[in-house]
Amino acid sequence: MKTLAVLREKVYSVQDRFIQQAFDLKGVVVSAKEEPGSCEICQGQMHVQKTFQHEGRTIEHGTFDVRETVWVCAAGCRYRSGELVTRRASSVVESIIPDRVVGYDVMVFVGLKRFLHHWQREEICVGLHEEHGIELSSGEISLMSRLFLDYLKRLHHARAKQLKAALESDGGYPMHVDATGENGRGTLLVVMAGWRKWVLGSWKIATERSELILPCIRDVVRRFGAPCAAMRDLGKAVTPAIDDLVSEFDIDIPVLACHQHFLADIGKDLLAPYHSRLRELFGRTKTRPKLRNLVRELGRQIGEQIHEARQAVLTWQTMTEAEHTLPPGRDGLAVVRSMTQWTIDYKADSTGLDFPFDRPYWDFYNRCITILRAIDAFLRIAPDDTKVNAAIERLHRILSAVACEVPFVQIVRHLRRRAALFDELRDKLRMATKLPENESAKDLDAMRSQFDKWVASLNKRRLKRGETEDTCNAIDTILKHIDAHGNNLWGHAICLPEKVGGGIRLAARTNEQLENFFKDLKHGERRRSGRKNLTQDLEHLPAEAALAYNLNHSDYVIIVCGGLDELSKTFALLDQEDQSRKRKGLAPQDLEDFGCVLQLSTSSLSTPDRRIVRTENMNQRINRAARSRAPHLQY
Fold first, then answer.
1. Main-chain phi, psi angles of 88, to 5 degrees
2. I want to staple 192 with a disulfide (CB 3.0 to 4.6 A). Which of 176, 364, 432, 472 is the partner?
3. What's the distance, Cα to Cα, between the start and end of the chain in Å?
4. Residue 188 DSSP SS3
5. What is the pLDDT of residues 533-570, one digit of tens each?
6. Which residues are 56's β-sheet partners?
7. Where are the alpha helices (DSSP H) in 251-359?
8. Cα distance between residue 579 and residue 560, in whole Å
9. Are 187 and 204 in contact (CB under 8 A)?
10. Domain-by-domain residue ranges, the chain?
11. From CA 430, how far away is CA 407, in angstroms rounded?
């Protein structure tokens, strides 16, 4: 076996050398001396300014050395910027990034793998080596990743007019605005065009506040035109920011409140107080720990025969009998163990929508009551096996505390009434399950009509005799939310202008597109980092990483570069255009930068502030002042 291992190692070594020899052109010097033509200012001759040798690394050519000749105007002409009129070899300029030895295609390879496929740096290094014979360090991978996003942002802004024209051909775009973060840090604000699902802008902001959000959405409107609608959550930051934007640009568009957030806000106000008290009761009675201990003890009693016991449980599940009985011996213990596990597996009843759409402790209570009733049925004919009988009675004692405790019954009664109201509201907004597909304007009109009738019935129910005080309070909570946000719940039918064919197109009723976008982004970052907690990852993730997801949309890619295969050439053209503008004394195409405004620090102890506060010099400075003989002040 050792001989085979050594042989395989040598085969891999020979393979690596073969790949390196096949791709590596290092040591081969290529001459880049092209005819310069005439000076573009005086039309005179140009002569050699210098010839120098440097390295190059491109996917197209591999690693090589190039001897490049630079030409200069013989008459000494200068551009308006003051630079001499020079000309480099176009083959080098079009392939290698300025002031670097790495090619544009290598940067694009790194960027796509990092931000679309979520490869780790080491994976990218291996991919470059094995596929293209190019060696880059982990640090260079990080630099190339950041540089890729810089180029992508420049390209996004340079093609703003073409992207705007595409959006106008749709009749505009619904603007979706939302922000995400992790533990209050790394706040990423994103604006998305709803129908195309393009990210129009993304920024890192110090905290989610309206004065930081407004400059961002204002920039989107200036670049891509006014939206035909705006979708937002019910947050205290986004709401005034969009209202100020509509007022500032004097645009008459529906500002829509996300139905999902609307329901979530009402549900939390309705259910959170009683659901929290139910959780506290379960914690006080220690029901779940006792059930888990019972499962572990029964597992130890079954011992090594656990596989046969599981098969016995599967057989018992399929039995149909007039009298409910438990099998004796090991099989009976396995059945009691499975019943206990079924009780603590209450999360299986969840839909994955989180609270208040899922109420885990209410599900736990319902399972406890259900299994108690089942135990009563199984105990009508007590098991002959004393161990099985002891196990089932122990399970009954643990769960009896839930059924006998008066607070449990009272809290669940209130929770059930409020949940019924909340579920009625979900049904009227047709969000009791998944969002219906292919909704029409008629569907929305019918939904609104039913919703208005339901609200009127709530007002009547509020005044009806016999309703409990808690039910009246719950109705008041719902009506309060409807009064605050009811006007923003409707208006999803957008009338398209005649120049694009007219008609009606619906905007989404929720901000689900952006929510799913953030979910995918975080999932990708977890895949790359291997960490569940993304606090540090999101804090260091550049905002432009959100723009990289546009490259998944073929319509966007065709507009900005024609195809992913052309992305590196497009980046090279961007540099040539910027260099041309600089020589002519013109300002760069994209000058606006309000990064400093977005980092106005309103948090009590942000990461940049923490780096300043947690220094030895800070400690010494304060301690020296504290130990000084300064007079004590009287307060």
1. -100, 170
2. 176
3. 83
4. strand
5. 888 888 889 999 999 999 999 999 999 999 999 999 99
6. 64
7. 259-285, 287-302, 306-317, 329-344
8. 20
9. yes
10. 25-96, 159-256+509-559, 262-266+415-493, 286-404
11. 34
In the block, tokens 């399972």 appear at 367
Amino acid at 313: V
Long-range contact set of residues 325-332: C-beta below 8 Å, sequence gap at least 24: 325/378, 325/381, 325/383, 326/378, 326/383, 326/388, 326/392, 327/388, 328/383, 328/384, 328/385, 328/388, 329/385, 329/388, 330/302, 330/305, 332/383, 332/385, 332/387, 332/388, 332/391
Tally of CB atoms within 10 A around 307:
9
**Residue 489's pLDDT is what?**
93
Displacement of CA 219 from its chain's centroid (Å): 22
Look-up: residue for tokens 């300064």? 630
CA 251, chain centre distance (Å): 30
pTM above 0.85, yes or no: no
Q: What is the DSSP string of 103-134?
A: BHHHHHHHHHHHHTS---HHHHHHHHHHHH--
Closest to 574 (Cα-Cα) out of 560, 585, 564, 563: 560
Instruction: State which fold the 159-256+509-559 domain adopts.
Output: Nucleotidyltransferase; domain 5 (3.30.420)
Query: Three-state SS for 78?
Result: strand
Kindly state the greatest CA–CA separation across the chain.
Answer: 112
For 154, the enclosing helix (H) or strand (E) is helix 138-158
- Residue 20 parent element (H or E): helix 2-23
Beta bridge partners, 390, equal none
